[in-house]
Amino acid sequence: MTKALKINKNSEQGVLELLKFLLESGKVKGVFTLKKISKDGAVAYSLITKSDELKDAVPLFPLMPVNAGKLLSRFTLRGETTEPVAAVVKPCELRAFMELVKREQGSLENIFVVSSTCGGVYPLKMAVDGSIDKNLSKYWDAVKKAEIPTNLRSACKGCGEFKPYAADMTVDLISKNDIDKQCLIFLNTEKGMEFAKGMKAEFLEKELDKGKLDKFRSKREAEKKKLFDEIETKMNGMDGLIEIFGKCIGCHGCMRVCPICYCKLCEFESPDCEYKPSNYEMELKRRGGLRVPPDTIYYQLGRLTHIGISCVGCGSCEDVCPVDIPLSIIFKKVGESVQKMFDYIPGKSIEEKIPLITFEKEEFAEVED
Q1: d(CA 74, CA 325)
Q2: Distance CA 319, CA 38 (A)
Q3: Contact at 8 Å (CB) between 60 and 114?
Q4: Where are the beta strands (DSSP E) in the chain?
């Protein structure tokens, strides 16, 4: 039976109570979490080292300004932290960080992870126009009822990986009717139990309600099927791909926010991918016209094959696309089909190797002549 902390405050205040305790007890030297950074309610991931700064922290705010896995990778890329840091991240952010650590793009050493059963996040445009605050009460009502909140990122609506795999602590949110009165935090690891010692809270022997989470997962799966069926109709054949990816303007914003893209020099931004005058002349003679920039479809297909096996479905790519290409659903659909072939869930376990860098002699024996 898993141990859990019960704090008689609403879920966000309970998490803040935990973070304050960790800082003031010296168990961590810093807290990485979402924080309000302006009077108009803008939030950003911040590193906090003084407990009084937690007054502006909003660890459970349903927004992902950038996938935190990418930030934690940058934070630990040059070496592990010398002191413990508590990081409050969403399940897909944690999985992204795990995938990057596997690629030696970061370190888990001294990172203490707090996550939650996730109701999803809103698109960034709702943070810009200020409409998130107007929807917060509806969001938390939906989370309490294990419903899918309206206006979420498309990727979140169909996400079945809303329960974190490798967190030291998990905040129970989905299908909890009393999250506005009580905070329940599960202690998943020995480190989680050790860090909770000394906190003024009730310690329980309890498990996450699998039945309720499975029902919620079924709702998400049904929504995902709708999204997949819709995109499959649009992507039917080469004409469909051209229709969808042909809108790409080559800004590479999707690549910049993708937590799995980490190459210092991307092939698609290297001189090798630049057209020479002779290339333009040849294409113009052959076709009579050429869109600029060229090869945007090639770019999208290249990215799809490059990161599909490790795509965590966070939806950041679609969120920043200026021409509204449904990237998150395309990448999620293709990514899941590849991941299923290898029986691989990206970021589930730090011990599980990335399939594309391993070799199994009997792998895909059914496709042999």
Answers
A1: 28
A2: 22
A3: no
A4: 3-7, 30-36, 43-48, 85-88, 111-116, 169-171, 183-187, 202-205
pLDDT tens figures, 322-362: 999 999 999 999 999 999 999 999 999 999 999 877 766 67
Provide the Cα torsion 264, 267, 271, 274; round to 10°: -140
Query: Does residue 84 carry a pLDDT above 70?
Result: yes
- Cross-strand pairs, 143: none
Enter the tokens of residue 188: 């998943």
Confirm if 183 and 7 have CB atoms less than 8 A apart: yes
Quick one: how far is CA 100 from the chain centroid?
Answer: 12
Q: Please state whether beta strands 111-116 and 85-88 pair in parallel, antiparallel, or not at all (unpaired).
A: parallel
CA gap 365, 346 in Å, rounded: 23
Q: How many helices (H) and strands (E) does the chain have?
A: 14, 8
Among 176, 179, 185, 182, which residue's Cα sits nearest to residue 203?
185
* Polymer length in residues for the chain: 369
Parallel/antiparallel/unpaired status of strands 111-116 and 183-187: unpaired
Cα distance between residue 63 and residue 135, in whole Å: 12
Give me the pLDDT at residue 298, please: 86
Residue where the block lists tokens 């937690």: 54
The amino acid that residue 229 corresponds to is D
Q: Where are the domains of the chain?
A: 3-223, 225-367
Question: Is 287 in a helix, a strand, or coil?
Answer: helix
**Cβ–Cβ < 8 Å for 221, 161:** no
